[in-house]
Specification:
disordered N terminus
């Protein structure tokens, strides 16, 4: 300001510097709060969902301490203790499902190596199918790296997780499961393979990927139908130029491999 003395200017600037410093400290504190020891997975506080013993298991998993998890199990801690109903969307999830959604791949890997059961979970989802539900491909990869058999883990409602992957349009996961030698022709209770599921939701791209990876394009379900007819029942809103072009490519691929082209029309 005009007429302000040098000491006054220095005093005002000093106050401003202190205010900026306090604001910076406050912002850092807020940032660190999300990484506090009480939140071992970097997401919501697991203490809101699990008992103290389970939180210790999760902390050990975060730290990569397999032996600590095994010791806790020897002391009587169940590594599969389900969550409470604090969060209706995650009621009953296991620590491994929690790690799949909120943890790093190392957390998932450590928990599985420590003794968590990947085939139990909430709502009919095991750890692998839950990873697909939440679109956590890195977590799914960590599970399969530890236990390759999980590439054919059961899917929710029957079939295997490849059915789930194509149902939810998880393209990266589909490719990963193919690379992991998942069974491309595993059947659900109705005799439908993953390509049937892909066709039922008009996921033509997944149908093409599966056929090119070696899936049986001539497989028939328990009613005697092949998968292809579902793609000709699509609503007009789905029948875009891209969709129709991909469907034509799929027909060409089927013919080149000697599979029947049964449109149902």
């Amino acid at each position: 300001m005009l007429g302000e003395t040098v000491p006054a200017l220095r005093h005002r600037r000093s106050i401003r510097s202190i205010a900026v410093s306090l604001l910076t400290v406050g912002m850092v504190a807020v940032g660190l709060a999300g990484c506090a020891p009480g939140s071992p997975l970097g997401g919501p506080d697991p203490a809101d969902y699990f008992d103290a013993g389970t939180v210790r298991v999760l902390q050990a998993a975060r730290d990569g301490d397999v032996e600590r998890i095994r010791q806790l199990i020897r002391e009587g801690q169940d590594p599969n203790t389900p969550a409470n109903d604090h969060d209706a969307r995650r009621s009953g999830i296991t620590p491994l499902q929690w790690a799949v959604e909120f943890g790093r791949p190392r957390t998932v890997e450590t928990l599985l190596r420590g003794g968590a059961d990947p085939l139990v979970g909430s709502g009919g989802y095991n750890a692998a199918s839950y990873a697909l539900l939440r679109d956590k491909t890195d977590s799914l990869r960590a599970l399969i790296d530890v236990d390759p058999s999980l590439a054919d883990a059961p899917g929710r409602g029957g079939g295997v997780i490849l059915h789930v992957a194509v149902l939810h349009y998880r393209a990266d996961a589909v490719e990963m499961l193919i690379d992991a030698d998942a069974d491309l022709d595993a059947e659900d209770p109705g005799g439908r393979t993953p390509i049937f599921t892909a066709a039922s939701v008009q996921n033509v791209a997944a149908c093409l990927v599966l056929i090119r990876a070696g899936a049986d394009g001539g497989h028939r379900d328990h009613r005697g139908d092949t998968f292809l007819s579902s793609l000709y029942l699509a609503k007009d809103s789905v029948r875009t130029r891209e969709f129709l072009g991909d469907r034509d490519d799929l027909e060409d691929e089927l013919r080149s491999r000697g599979f029947p082209v049964e449109t149902g029309r």
